[in-house]
Design brief:
This protein is mostly helical. The radius of gyration is 20 Å and the shape is globular.
Length: 185
């Protein structure tokens, strides 16, 4: 009985996610006489080739089609969001790297490990770039602060959450995370 209930719950969850997933904004025209090999270009794409959505001519929303829509009341792609904010670092960094590491690894705060490989972290994600040696890249404190505050100001279609704009992290917490990233060599 427990197995049947668990299987039913799992099936419902998968159906809900499948029904809620964002669809690409444009669809390719259907062909009637396409050979089976042409129907699955992603399976035969060479390693290192850009995904279909990153290719020229692909719709901007297509690369996010794998992510579920999290709005309960609005259709996918219509949920209201705050406008990007380009905030610069004022004054010296004055961040604490140890506190920044705790913030970056905490699931209720930065949760940077969900997407990035970071020094001292366990079970990192692979969606974002590897940040384990970020301090040796030569990026400035101000540049890093602006990216953590709201990356959308630089890259409008980024998947990185706007930690400062959304109020997830305050200015001092972002300074601490920047100090941690700069200390990662």
């Amino acid at each position: 009985m427990k197995r049947l209930a668990a299987a039913c719950v799992a099936t419902l969850a998968l159906a809900a996610l499948a029904g809620c997933a964002q669809a690409p904004t444009t669809a390719a025209p259907a062909t009637t006489a396409a050979p089976p090999a042409a129907m699955a270009p992603a399976a035969t794409a060479p390693i290192g080739a850009p995904p279909p959505a990153a290719r020229p001519g692909a719709s901007p929303g297509a690369k996010f089609a794998a992510f579920p829509c999290l709005s309960y009341t609005l259709p996918c792609g219509k949920a209201a969001t705050r406008k990007p904010v380009a905030k610069s670092l004022e004054g010296p960094l004055a961040g604490d790297a140890a506190r920044g590491m705790r913030i970056a690894h905490a699931r209720d705060k930065g949760n940077c490990l969900a997407c990035h490989v970071m020094k001292g972290g366990t079970q990192p994600g692979s969606r974002g770039p590897d940040l384990s040696h970020y301090g040796s890249t030569g990026r400035s404190d101000a540049d890093t602060f602006a990216a953590v505050y709201d990356m959308r100001a630089r890259t409008p279609e980024t998947l990185m959450p706007p930690f400062g704009t959304n109020g997830v992290l305050d200015d001092q917490e972002i300074r601490d995370v920047v100090a941690y990233l700069q200390a990662s060599r």
